[in-house]
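Bug #2210: token dump truncated for Ig-like domain-containing protein?
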Amino acid sequence: MAWTVLLLGLLAYGSGVDSQTVVTQEPSLSVSPGGTVTLTCGLSSGSVSTSNYPSWYQQTPGRSPRMLIYSTNNRPSGVPSRFSGSISGNKAALTITGAQPEDEADYYCALYMGSNIHTVI
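Reproduced locally. Full output below:
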């Protein structure tokens, strides 16, 4: 039986963020246990690159967001290796390989867009 991985929110932070720039995402994705799914994070104008330091967060109901990936492809201690980050084309990507039922959650992407950080999840 398939279950749904929800991707609900993305965040762009930093000074000089163009008010016309929109962060794009899939509204939701589904994957079967043991399957592979890739979530993406793009910009309406321009490409996401490593200089945006993409990071990814997972949030389950009633819990605080948990950082899964920082600076494109780095995992904090304790994050399973089935989570990996990359740049794919002009977007940041989070891939879950060998998805587990406990991975059903909301996933958030954060992009650094300027010289100073103003907002974090």
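Output looks complete on our side. Residues 56 and 78 are 15 Å apart (CA to CA). Marking as cannot-reproduce; reopen if the truncation happens again.
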